[in-house]
Amino acid sequence: MPVAIITGASKGLGRALGAALAERGWDLVLDARTAGVLEETAVALSAYGTRVEALPGDVTDAGHRAELVATARKLGGVDLLVNNASALGAEPLVRLEDLTLDGLRQALEVNVVAALGLVQEALPLLRAAEAGTVVDISSDAAAEAYETWGGYGASKAALDHLSAVLGEEEPGLRVWAVDPGDMGTDLYAAAVPGDDDPRPAPDSVVPAFLRLIDERPASGRYSAPALLEER
Length: 231
Description:
- By secondary structure, the protein is an alpha/beta fold.
- It has helices spanning 12-23, 35-46, 62-75, 101-128, 150-169, 186-191, 206-215, 224-230; strands at residues 3-6, 27-32, 52-56, 80-83, 133-137, 174-179, 220-223.
């Protein structure tokens, strides 16, 4: 069975994508910082009959990243790596004049440095896979200028660029930076508390990710809403 590592997988998009892959027979290695919620997710996803390993921890910890890859290796390798774990840098979001430098460093550390670290750790197994794939979760804020989204957006723009370069350096892999679009997630609620406008559920954009996995287009940046509109 193919094996996927998904970070930030206890809820939201990470859990929704994990459920869709488990339903297809994928074995999973799931990461999140909150052990209890992650274990509940692992139990729910294992009901599909696949192997699901839950490893609570922080992706900024090199030892934790090594453990994620070692666990995937025991399951058979790494066919798909999804860098979904994210940090805002400030909760709620603030203007750049008020963004602490420590907050910006946190966003960069989680969203960029840790993501690259996990890619580096998993790269030998991704190269050995029949269809090695990296999915880096991006954001509309990486490409557009929105007030208060500067720190988070800058970190996601940096991740987009790393994804693009990795795609050039690793032609045998597929490397996709994917903007999932507007979603109703805990991350958004923390970013803009009090915004009660209805937003799509994370599982509504999962078909876009499955389309990428099925069709395997060239490495690059993709928009989940655009992929869904083309269907």
